[in-house]
# Entry
Amino acid sequence: MHWTEMLLPLSISFAITISMMPIFIGYFKVKQFGQITREEGPKWHQVKSGTPTMGGVVFIIAAILTVIGTAIWKDVLTVKLAMLLFVLLFFAAIGFLDDFLKIFKKQNEGLTSKQKFISQLVGSFVFVALFFLSGSDPLITIPFFGQVHNWLVFAVFTIIWITGFSNAVNLTDGLDGLVAGTAGIAYTAYGILAYRQGRLEVLLFCIAIVGGLIGFFFFNKKPAKIFMGDVGSLALGAGLAVVSLALHLEWSLLLIGLVFVIETASVMLQVGSFKLRGKRIFKMSPIHHHFEMSGWSEWRVVLTFWAVGLVSAILALWLLV
# Structure
């Protein structure tokens, strides 16, 4: 695929998102379906209560339609591409149910942590089963051990990887435009790596998601007219995990998705410290709230995290390419 041809799926996904989002926002406003800001969050976030949410529905659908349409045209609608789409859709469905229950209950709690975790494990397990049925090689590179071809190792690693990064991106989604930018950078990096490997189906998948995220950002930048919701963040995180697996570059996600790793680590350290010592390390976690509580403006935090994501992605590309 020539680089000019890549503009087509990018443009289609962008066009669908940017044209449908105003309709989606208008409908949610009429129905008064808005985000309920959690009480323990920064006090100045209370003004965001009532802002329409679940914007991920639009850019996820836009990406899926773009991928299927372009794949049929380019004759690359493979089983592996279908598996990528399955994970994106399955985790979007988990997020959709969580968001819907929050709106229905009018509180910042949808699925319980246990229900969400079990659902994520099920989605990850089904992906492993599909991978097995497709006859693909269960290849995982283990540091200090090299390449391992073992179904048990592959299954355990994959389930942890998909579930972990799905939650990591979900935790990061707390500021206007933060995930739209960091996820866009990560998917762009993997698109470049897929192009270098000649993996057209993975490239198409990444490009379509980037196009949708660019369109979404026009409505999600501060002050956000809509939030992506769990339907968007859970799907984006799971999508990144399966893309890294598809390219056999699993560990690269720790660097390309460094922002998501840091956000997750901050929550784990905060919880661990409070349980063990009764003291908090950060003013608030995830860590983007710590910087807000330290006096940083929301835009300063977002731009800084974008910069970290961009630098780490460029470093990963330099090391791999």
Remarks:
- The chain has a mean pLDDT of 91.
- The longest helix spans residues 3-31.
